[in-house]
Design a protein that fits this description.
Number of strands: 8
Structural class: alpha/beta
Function: Catalyzes the ferrous insertion into protoporphyrin IX.
Number of domains: 2
Number of helices: 13
Helix content: 40-55%
Bound molecules: the ligand C=CC1=C(C)c2cc3[nH]c(cc4nc(cc5[nH]c(cc1n2)c(C)c5CCC(=O)O)C(CCC(=O)O)=C4C)c(C)c3C=C, fe (ii) ion
Mean pLDDT: 95
Strand order of the largest sheet: 2-1-3-4
CATH architecture of the largest domain: 3-Layer(aba) Sandwich
Distance between the termini: 41 Å
Strand content: 5-15%
GO molecular function: ferrochelatase activity; metal ion binding
Shape: globular
Low-confidence stretches: none
Largest sheet: 4 strands, parallel
Protein name: Ferrochelatase
CATH topology of the largest domain: Rossmann fold
Main location: cytoplasm
Subcellular location: Cytoplasm
């Protein structure tokens, strides 16, 4: 008799906003070859000699500005989400972080102890990026192979265009978009352009074909940028936001390599200088509020916009513990429970309901 379970996996935060804890977190995060994708000796040099001497202090300062009495917003929200999903399901639900705690090893151990031998892994990343979604899945596979080799792993595909996810996103923004605003900015976490080319399974599409993300291709199954565009299109269609009243940008650039453009900080300046007064910002790549939404967008981004001539900049909170987000996760699990054992991977993908754009 098979025993099923669910593992939610998010990125993770430092254990505290102290400089040593942030240094430890940044070391683990940036030494991941799917985040800094240079050969190990070069990565080691960049991380230890260019980043770790200064960044932990600045990042710790930023973390202190968002830290709550219960801890990091990302971890606290993810734990609450796990509790809410568990309350609606009869099978065990665990939570892990790709970096730091609660660790993947602890979560797999707990699931193994509970007798789970068929596991649905839900990355808390709606879009495919090798630095987030792929890294999390690879980590779960590595740890499971070591600790519980008989456990079967089923991975939830990226849900950037799933009806339930889009419904939750639009519902979470409802109170904001019904008020008066001039422009809605979709700010997604950025990635280096190089990562887009590396994730292109066709080897000849991403950033090689003109308007690549608008041109149908099997490469989009792993194309972060195409998936971000799809999320935005599904959202504006359902929410009825007219053409010209929204745009896309990519935030959190690190280093000197070209990342996906336009950059959010430049876009905030451009919009304000172009006459946008009342701005709304939504960050659909993050399902939980975190440093990158609360501090980078909610504090620094807001200051940039207001200093450039805007009058109000409102960040729409992430899905966090929104009831429809919990329903979306519950439905993903129910589809898995309804038996994927007798389905081929192709059938499983087709049972996943995308938004019609
Ligand atoms: C939404 C998915 C994410 C992708 C893709 C991603 C890529 C990516 N990130 C960095 C560098 C940093 N990111 C940092 C924080 C951070 N990143 C994400 C998500 C994605 N990152 C989240 C949810 C967070 C916040 C975590 C929290 O504790 O709240 C940081 C740490 C903070 C800082 O010092 O700025 C770094 C560094 C790279 C290089 C990258 C792709 C290559
Ligand atoms: Fe990041
Ligand atoms: Fe593309």
């Amino acid at each position: 008799m098979t025993k099923q379970g669910v593992l939610l996996i998010n990125l993770g935060s430092p254990d505290s906003p102290s400089v040593p804890a942030v240094r430890k977190y940044l070391r683990e995060f940036l030494m991941d070859g799917r985040v800094l994708d240079t050969p190990w000796p070069i990565r080691f040099g960049i991380v230890h000699f260019a980043i770790l001497p200064k960044r932990p202090k600045a990042s710790a300062h930023a973390y202190k500005s968002i830290w709550t009495t219960a801890g990091s917003p990302l971890v606290v929200t993810s734990k609450n989400l796990k509790g809410a999903l568990q309350a609606r399901l009869s099978i065990p639900v665990e939570l892990a972080m790709r970096h730091q705690s609660p660790s993947v090893a602890e979560a797999i151990n707990e699931l193994h102890y509970q007798g789970v031998d068929e596991l649905l892994v839900i990355p808390l990343f709606p879009h495919y990026a090798m630095s987030s979604y792929e890294s999390a899945v690879v980590r779960v596979r590595e740890v499971t192979a070591r600790q519980s080799p008989l456990m079967k792993i089923v991975v939830q595909p990226p849900y950037y265009n799933a009806l339930d996810y889009n419904n939750a996103l639009v519902a979470s923004a409802e109170d904001y978009i019904k008020r008066d605003f001039d422009h809605l900015l979709f700010s997604f976490h950025g990635i280096p352009e190089r990562h887009l080319r590396k994730s292109d399974t066709t080897g000849c599409h991403c950033l090689k074909v003109k308007n690549c993300c608008e041109t149908p291709s099997s490469a989009h199954a792993t194309c972060y940028r195409a998936q971000c565009f799809q999320t935005m299109k599904a959202f504006v269609k359902q929410a009825g936001i007219p053409e010209g009243k929204y745009s896309i940008a990519f935030q959190s650039r690190l280093g000197r390599d070209p990342w996906l453009t336009p950059y959010t900080d430049k876009e905030l300046e451009r919009l304000a200088r172009g006459g946008v007064k009342k701005l709304l910002v939504i960050c659909p790549a993050f399902v939980s509020d975190c440093l990158e939404t609360l501090e980078e967008i909610g504090m620094r981004g807001r200051e940039t916009f207001l200093h450039s001539g805007g009058t109000s900049d409102t960040m729409i909170p992430c899905l966090n513990e929104h009831p429809l987000w919990i329903v979306a996760l519950e439905n993903m699990t129910k589809r898995f429970m309804a038996d994927n054992v007798h389905q081929s991977p192709e059938e499983r993908r087709n049972s996943f309901q995308p938004v019609a754009i």
